[in-house]
Amino acid sequence: MLAVIGGSGLTQLSSLEVARREVVRTPYGEPSGMLTFGRVGKQEVVFLARHGHGHTIPPHRVNYRANVWALIKGAGAQAIVSVASVGGIRADLAPGTLVVPHQIIDYTWGRAQTFFDVIDRPVVHVDFTEPYDELLRQRLLCAADRAGLTVAGRAVYGATQGPRLETAAEIERMARDGCDIVGMTGMPEAALARELATPYAALCVVANWAAGRGDAQHTIPLETIEGVLQEGMAKARRIIEHFCEEEL
Ligand code: HPA
User: Fold this and answer.
1) How many CB atoms lie within 10 A of CB 128?
2) Domain holding 33: CATH number?
3) What is the CA(67)–ligand 1 centre distance, in A?
4) pTM of the entire structure?
5) How do residues 11-52 score in pLDDT, each as one tens digit?
6) Does the Cβ of 182 fall within 6 Å of ligand 1?
């Protein structure tokens, strides 16, 4: 079973033949919403809208632990593909571009970020040198290829706290740090999947230039984001469809 977590612009998977919806409870509280089970082609898929069905849960309030736990321990997912919208920092990552990042820098704070949060068991440090599963990343890139879509295959994802967008100086600093794209939900989601030893990769849609870049020199033109995002997410759906042609 493949889990797909849909972000802004992807609250449902249109190609999913829905079999059932289920409320899954976890030791960490409620996930963002019901899990939708079904198939895309031959592949069994469980889908979860990260921000809730009506897109009402802001990035810093998402219960990442409950979401990841529900998909892996509740639904039995063997891999997670996260779909997310991001801002473009690197010059070639303009709005509309699709990106499968290979690295992460975490700037978030105050989020429940680990399942190993108790003081009566031996301390666990998971390896996170490569935060994304390389095989899953390559499979996403191959799926994009089969769909005839161009995707940037290497990028550093900078995870910010939100919900506000960044200042131009913050983006400048992130660029100096080596960040290529910026989003608000990539962490702790990726680390939690690793703690449960489950392959995780992200497919990102660049919705806008990050603050101070491209046409966002003085303000981010929020009114244009919706259209770019819809077009990008339609492409992301096609990639997921092709991804599902091959079983996990
Ligand atoms: N910054 C942070 N997160 C985002 C952005 C951005 O510019 N665009 C979409 N998600």
Assistant:
1) 12
2) 3.40.50.1580
3) 21
4) 0.97
5) 878 788 888 999 999 999 999 999 999 999 999 999 999 999
6) yes
